[in-house]
Specification:
The protein has 95 residues and is α+β, with helices and mostly antiparallel strands. It has 2 domains: 1-40, no CATH class; 43-95, IHF-like DNA-binding proteins (HU Protein, Chain A, Irregular), CATH 4.10.520.10. 43% of the residues lie in helices and 28% in strands. It has helices spanning 5-16, 20-39, 85-93; strands at residues 44-46, 50-57, 60-63, 70-73, 76-83. The strands form 2 sheets. It has a 3-stranded antiparallel beta sheet. Strands 3-4 form a two-stranded antiparallel sheet. It is elongated and about 55 Å long. 2% of the residues are buried.
């Protein structure tokens, strides 16, 4: 099952008794903070979970799959995630 933003909001309501509007503000604030931090070029480290960081990718050759024509893809930044060893162990061990 994929967890969506509304699921996170509902979980805060159910587990901690927060009003839905307050839960929505909390989740939105966290996501905005993460976005702004990554936009500025800094990393986001959540202990026991993992690290989000913006990585630079250089220009490269590509191909339009519909036409087969070659093209050059521009350099860009992408967000990557590296999970913590704690999370990796939980995923692999199932505990």
């Amino acid at each position: 099952m994929t967890i969506v933003k509304d699921s996170l909001i509902q979980s805060l309501c159910d587990q901690y008794g927060f009003p839905k509007q307050k839960s929505r503000v909390l989740v939105e604030t966290i996501f905005e903070l993460v976005k702004k931090t990554l936009e500025s070029g800094d990393d986001v480290l959540v202990s026991g979970f993992g690290k989000f960081y913006a990585k630079k990718k250089g220009a490269r050759k590509g191909r339009n799959p519909a036409t087969g024509n070659g093209l050059i893809l521009d350099a860009r930044r992408v967000v990557t995630f590296r999970c913590s060893p704690v999370l990796r162990d939980k995923i692999n061990d199932g505990t």
